Amino acid sequence: MVLELPAPELQNSGSLARCIEERRSVRQYTKVLLPIGVLSQLLWAALGVTGPGQKRATPSAGGLYPLHLQIVVQRVSALEPGTYEYEADSHSLKLVANRVPEEAVQELGIGDQPWLKEAAIVIGVSAKLGDAVRHFEPQPPQGERGARYVYMETGALAQNVHLQSTALGLGCVLVAGFDDARVKEVLRLPSNMEPTALLCIGQRRDI
Fold first, then answer.
1. Residue 91 C-alpha from the chain's centroid
2. How many domains, the chain?
3. What's the CA gap between 199 and 174, in Å, rounded?
4. Which of 112-148 are b and which e, b meaning 16 or more Cβ less than 10 Å from the residue's Cβ?
5. Which of 202, 204, 7, 200 is nearest to 105 (CA)?
6. β-pairing verdict for 67-73 and 82-87
7. Which residue, 3, 9, 13, 157, has most beta carbons within 10 Å?
């Protein structure tokens, strides 16, 4: 099943300076459903097409764009819980698996990270790491340069999502401590893709 997402809002997302100032890692969320338009905005900010030639919101070395997004949906309006793949070219979602049990989402993290199961969505960032390594093989240090680019791009994507979340009044936290094998299993990643980050997002619970 493929679901076309609402068009992203390109105006009135808040002052960039204010979003930078107010950005914080938020790990506590309410049970409020995220509107599907909000999910659309977040995915566009992460990896959406922003210009001619399929230019994306996140920069990529050599225009390779090795990053991909899989979204564990737990609470989003007008969207059944499950795991979806973001198709940036058409700004749409493809359902790849049904609802993921909360305990399975919790187990993605290393140690006790309850925000994984409490978030409305968990965005999994993954990459064709081998392709990037081979593409940049001639650049020193050989065998390492491509991987460095992938992780730089992951950081840029994560910051985009953090700032967009802040503009929308949402809470967001980057999870880097995760079990690679479990993430690959739960997100249904093919063998040639490796997870690089998880982003937990939900309506923030201020205490």
1. 14
2. 1
3. 5
4. ebebbbbbbbbbbbbbbbeebbebbeeeeeeeebbbe
5. 200
6. antiparallel
7. 157
pLDDT, tens digit, 9 for 90 and up, residues 124-178 = 999 999 999 999 999 999 889 999 999 999 999 999 999 999 999 999 999 999 9
Backbone angles phi, psi at 133, to 5 degrees: -60, -45
pLDDT at 207: 56
Residue 109's pLDDT is 97
Q: What is the DSSP letter of 67?
A: E
Q: Which residues share a beta bridge with 109? A: 178
Query: Does residue 11 carry a pLDDT above 80?
Result: no
- Output the CA angle 23-104-164, nearest 5 degrees: 20
C-alpha–C-alpha distance, residues 66 and 196, integer Å = 11
Contact 125, 154 (CB under 8 A): yes
> Strand (E) positions, the chain?
2-4, 49-51, 55-56, 67-73, 82-87, 92-98, 121-127, 170-175, 194-203
Give whole-number Cα distances, 203 to 45, 104, 119, 192, in Å. Answer: 18, 21, 8, 34
Structure-block tokens of residue 17 = 């300076």
Give the CATH number, domain containing residue 115.
3.40.109.10
pTM for this model (two decimals): 0.95
